[in-house]
Amino acid sequence: MKNNDWDHIQACLNGDEQAYGLLVRRYEPQITRLMWRFTRDRSACERLVQDVFVEAYFSLKSYQGRAPFIKWLGKIATRVGYRFWKERRQDKVNVPLMNLDTIEKAEQNSIEPFEAAEVLQSLLGCLLPADRLVLTLMYFEQCDTSEIAQRMGWSRAAVKMRAYRARKKIKDIAEREHLLEKLGWIR
Amino acid sequence: MDTLKAIEQLAQKACNETVPCFDVSNEVLARIKCGKPEIISFIPLELFAGISVAAASVVAFLSVNAWHYITNPLVELLAPLTEIPLW
User: Fold this and answer.
1) CB atoms A180 and B35 under 8 Å
2) Separation between Cα atoms, residue A118 and residue A131, nearest integer Å
3) Which of B9, B18, B31 sits opposite A50 (nearest CB)?
4) How far is B37 from chain A (nearest CA, A)?
5) Percentage of chain B modeled with pLDDT above 90
6) Backbone angles phi, psi at A110, to 5 degrees
7) Which one of A106, A118, A131, B38 is least enclosed by Cβ atoms within 10 Å?
8) Between A and B, how many residue pairs show a Cβ–Cβ distance under 8 A?
9) Selected residue of A26, A132, A180 to mutate for chain B interface (largest B Cβ count, 10 A)
10) pLDDT per position as a tens digit, A127-157
11) Residue A119, φ and ψ in degrees, nearest 5
12) ipTM metric
């Protein structure tokens, strides 16, 4: 862990809120990147980033410095994002699957990253929050099953099983929606 | 092409997406200030405890004195009987 982080954390615990401001500014881009995987709505994403840092501040006493601070923050961020999905599901906020016909057909290598992200997040949005989380972390964060298990406090076997089922589900959805044809990847 | 392979390729592409930038530090600090539980000052707490102890000791003192004057209520019932000559 960066010594700077530890010094700032100690300062925060001693009541120096400005030191926490420095930590927020340092890790904001990484956390924003992660939270952007949970929602593509700018204002919701900003709110989630705030929630992560506020929650982290009030849990700062529990941080023991064994792992890098960003890893600890990532764990909190993942749980905040997961809670956000679960709440939206409870509130029956269903984001419809994006109209894949609007995608411009492109070669596999020439599809724009934002478009690829939109398509993928739209597909993932059809899954249950837990399934969606596993695949989101695998696809976007390159997490393996043990890391997902550690982040969420689930068993590794459960994560493996969930990943297997989620992949099957997303494949079915993509085939039902004729994703490859719509992307122009099948001629 | 395999659908899952295609999804993985989409994911690889999506990882290069530019994400928006926010500056949330001021909002975070403001929310922390609002959400912070107020530290309870110890002096009023001690003062309140002291007053309570004083009040309790006065009540205890009076109660102990009053205790000596309490008689068993059954005595009132049985006393007339003892005075009545049975034959």
Assistant:
1) no
2) 18
3) B31
4) 10
5) 44
6) -105, 5
7) B38
8) 109
9) A180
10) 999 999 999 999 999 999 999 999 999 999 9
11) -65, -45
12) 0.80
Confidence of residue B57 (pLDDT cuts 50, 70, 90): very high
With CB atoms and an 8 Å threshold, state whether B15 touches A49.
no
User: How many angstroms from the chain centroid is the CA of residue A14?
Assistant: 31
Per-residue pLDDT, A97: 61
Dihedral sign from CA coordinates of B73, B75, B78, B80: negative
- CA–chain centroid gap for B61, Å, is 30
Tokens 């529990």 appear where? A62
List of E strands, chain A: none
Search chain B and give the residue with CA nearest A140.
Answer: B15
Q: Give me the residue label for tokens 């926010």.
A: B22
Contact B4 A113 (CB under 8 A): no
* Structure token pair of residue A68: 């890098």
- Find the helix or strand (DSSP H, E) in which B34 lies: helix B25-35
User: What is this structure's pTM?
Assistant: 0.75
Q: What is d(CA A3, CA A62) in angstroms, rounded to the nearest whole number?
A: 18
CB contact under 8 A, A20 and B28: yes
Given an 8 Å threshold on Cβ–Cβ distance, is A54 in contact with B31? yes
